[in-house]
Specification:
There is one protein chain. By secondary structure, the protein is α+β, with helices and mostly antiparallel strands. Helix content is 31%, strand content 18%. Helix 2 packs across helix 3 and helix 4 packs antiparallel against helix 5.
């Protein structure tokens, strides 16, 4: 039997949001976090989220990402639209709370020259600087209240490496872009022509992400693979472009670890367009 969760202490938007997630979790039958991870991996509309991320979301220590909350809500049978609105509301509260508020302090007086007759008058320095403070406060408030622009692109680095045994080694074959987020693209014929030239260190510009076939960089039959920290398995695929404009999907497994996880980009539309595609010789097209 699972141990009961420790009661959350303290107040604030993050803690309250965690309490709401706990309530949804209980209403769903309190599934174990590992079960939630497996369910998110099997669901067609959300990304796989690790068990530890689900647990962190219910601790109330940090505000969870939407990717985590989206999978949490879907797995637990919640209303995604309602929870999306609630997440945005808490996000705004959290961001507003991070801006320090000015604390008034007694200040010495200073002399201010009255321009009409050249007279000088001793007034509190706080009053003398009121216009400056008001202007700064107005600017700060405007910046804080202005909605954050959505991320529309991100530079990601290719890591064309395979996990073999206890090592992570450069793959002898180049990585490539695909017209579909599936496995076996060489046989399926969905390799984007002209894109099979990608090696570790190359950069792409990602525009969005999609959930597709689960992919791994691990040689599962090699000895010691279970203890290889470089092995990765994921069903998240980026829609990305090469410097020349060639575009297609690439699994995040072949992207550097620091650039995995979606990068805050939006989910791709149902059918991104593969363009432009250069003219290639028959040899390159069949490689």
């Amino acid at each position: 039997m699972a141990r009961p969760q420790k009661e959350l202490e303290g107040e604030g938007p993050v803690v309250e949001f965690a309490r709401e997630l706990r309530k949804l979790h209980q209403e769903a039958g309190a599934p174990k976090s590992k079960q939630m991870e497996l369910k998110s991996a099997a669901h067609a509309d959300v990304s796989r989220v690790g068990a530890s991320s689900f647990m962190d979301a219910m601790r109330g220590e940090r505000f969870p990402t939407w990717r985590t909350v989206e999978s949490f809500v879907v797995v637990c049978g919640g209303d995604l639209k309602q929870w999306g609105d609630r997440w945005q509301e808490v996000k705004h509260e959290v961001e507003a709370g991070r801006v320090p508020q000015p604390r008034p302090e007694p200040l010495p007086t200073t002399e201010v020259e009255l321009p009409s007759r050249g007279r000088r008058l001793a007034v509190p320095l706080a009053v003398a600087g009121m216009a400056v403070l008001a202007t700064a406060a107005t600017v700060g408030w405007t910046l804080r209240d202005e909605p954050r622009q959505p991320i529309t692109k991100a530079v990601i680095e290719v890591q064309n490496k395979s996990a073999i045994g206890s090592q992570l080694v450069e793959d002898s074959s180049p990585a490539f872009l695909q017209s579909e987020p599936v496995t076996g693209c060489r046989k399926r014929g969905c390799v984007v022509p002209g894109s099979n030239v990608l090696y570790s260190g190359d950069t792409l510009v990602a525009r969005c992400w999609a959930k597709g076939a689960e992919f791994t960089n691990a040689d599962l039959g090699s000895e010691g693979i279970q203890n290889n920290p470089g092995k990765a398995t994921s069903d998240l695929w980026y829609w990305a472009s090469m410097p020349g404009g060639i575009s297609g999907f690439i699994t995040e497994v072949y992207i550097a670890p620091q650039h995995r996880g979606g990068m805050g980009l939006p989910r791709c539309a149902a059918s991104p367009v593969v363009a432009p595609t250069p003219t290639v010789t028959s040899t390159a097209a069949t490689s």
